[in-house]
Amino acid sequence: xxxxxxVPFVWxxxxxxxxxTDRFNNGDTSNDVNFDRTKxxxxxxxxxxxxxxxxxxxxxxxYFSDLGVSAIWMTPIVExxxxxxxxxxxxxxxxxxYWTKDWTAIxxxxxxxxxxxxxxxxxxxxxxRILLDAVINHxxxxxxxxPVWPDDWVRTDPTCDYTSYxxxxxxxxxxxxxxxxxxxxxxxxxxxxxxxxWKSEGRYEQEVAELDAFFERTxxxxxxxxxxxxxxxxYITEFGxxxxxxxxxxxTEETVWQExxxxxxxxxxxxxxxxxxAVLDENAFxxxxxxxxxxxxxxxxxxxxxxxxxYFDEAFNSLINFEFKYDAARLDYESLFKKYTDALYGPLxxxxxxxxxxxxxxxxxxxxxxxxxxxxxxxLLLAPGTSQTYYGDESARSLSIEGTTxxxxxxxFMNWDEIDADINTKSILNHWQKLGQFRKNHPAVGAGVHQxxxxxxxxxxxxxxxxxxxxxxxxxxxxxxxxxxxxVGRLFEEGAQLHDAYSNQDVIVxxxxxxxxxxxxxxxxxxx
Length: 528
Fold this sequence. Notes:
Blueprint: E1 15-19, H1 52-60, H2 63-66, E2 71-74, E3 78-80, E4 100-106, H3 113-125, E5 129-134, E6 154-155, H4 166-169, E7 179-180, H5 192-200, H6 204-218, H7 224-239, E8 243-246, H8 254-274, E9 286-289, E10 302-304, E11 307-309, E12 318-321, H9 324-330, H10 333-344, E13 352-356, H11 373-382, E14 386-390, H12 416-421, H13 423-441, H14 443-447, E15 449-454, E16 458-466, E17 469-477, E18 482-487, E19 497-500, E20 505-508, E21 513-518, E22 523-527
Parallel strand pairs: 1-2, 1-14, 2-5, 5-8, 8-9, 9-12, 12-13, 13-14
Antiparallel strand pairs: 3-4, 6-7, 10-11, 15-16, 16-17, 17-22, 18-21, 19-20, 19-22
Helix pairs in contact: 1-3, 7-8, 11-13
C-alpha cells in the first residue's frame, strides 16, 4: 500500500475564492451604517452589511473547506470615502472597497483589526490562505465630505483614453477618480486631511514615527507611492496575510510593482520571523495582478501603447487571465486543457495565470444567465492554472438583477436562502464541492502536466512532482452514465486500489482498466 504524503500547498494549482466583503455574509449587524452613509442609493450601490465577521463565520462553519477552497481573496477592506457619488447611476457608496480614504484604517463597515486577526487565524487553522486587495493607482472620488488630496499627490485630469502608454497611466481611470502620481520621486508631506484625521483619532505621532522608520530603513524618497506601499505592507507584518491581488496594474508604471514586491517580501519575512509557530509553509508572498485584458496567449508580455511589458518580471507570480472565458466558450475540453498545459509548462513555466468565468467587473461572463453552472464548474476547476471562483458561481447566484446599472448587477448579496431551500442549487453546489475538494487534494489538477489517455471516452491524466512529492490523477469527462470502463494501466499497476472521488466508490485495477458504475458522467480517480 502506498504511503500518502501530506499534500503541499501550491499557488499554481490553488482553488481561490473571490468575494465582495460587503456582499458575502453579515456577521455583525451593529456595524452596518457608519459615517452617516444613509442616503438612498442606486440599486445595489450602497453597503449591504457583509463584513469580516461574516466571512469568519463561514470559514468556521466549513463552507470554504467543503468547497475545497485553498485561498480567499476579499475586495479591499481599507477605510472608504465617507460620502457617495452620483454619476447618473444613483448615489454610490464605496461598498466595493476601491475608493480609499485612509489606507491605514479598516473601514468600520467591514469590521475591526481584531476581526481581521480572527479571520486570518480561522483560515490558517484550516489551511486556507488570505489575499487582500491592493490599490495604489488612485484615491477615492471627491465628495462634499471627502476633499481631494494635494496636487503633489494626485492629478484630477486628464481622463484616460487608453490610446497610448501615457494616456493609460498618467491620467484618471474615470472622471472624479484622482490618480496617484506614482511616477513622481518628489518628497511630499502628508495630506492635511490625513493629519487632521489621525490627530482626532489619537494616532498621529505613532503613524509619523512608523513612516520615519520606514523611509530611514529603505532610503526611498517620501514620494506618494512609497507611502502607500508602506501602508499596504503593514497588513502583512501585522496580520500575516498570504498575498495581495493588485488592482489596476497597467495603469501604474510597471517598476512600481517591482518596488512593491520587494517590500512585500521584506514584510512577509518579518512576519514569519516574529511568528515562527504560525508559519504555514515555505511559500513566498503571493502577488497576482489585474492587467486588464491580459490573456495567456500573450505569454509573459502585455502590449501597452506599443510597449511590450513583462509584468511577471520581479513582481507578479500570476496575472488574471481575461482570455479564459473565451477559450472555455470556443474550445472542447482537450483543446482547452492542452493549450493551458503547453503554455504553463512552456513560456510561462514557474509562473501561472488566474482563470475565471465570472467576476465583479466583467459585464460579459461565460454564463451570464446561469444556465451552465455545472459546465462552468467543470471547466474552471479542472483547467490547468489557478482557479478563481467568484462568490455565487457555486450556487448560480443571479448575475442579472432588475433595476441595476453597470457592474452592480454582478454584485448582489450571496444567495444563502437558495442554497438552503432549492434542490437544484444544492446539486450545483455539490458538483462544485466535489471538483473543488479534488483540486485542493491534488496539486496535479491545477499545477500538473496534462496528457490525454483516450479521446473516446475522454480520459486524461495530470501528473505533478515537487521535491520528493508526486501526485497523479486520472479524470474522465462526458462519459456514459451507468457502467463505464477507463483505461488506467499506463499509470496504475495491476491490483491497485483507486477511489472515484465523484461517485465516492472504490475500484481495483484489473487488466489495465477499472470499471465504474455510477449515475454520473464524470470520474475523478485517485490512488486510495
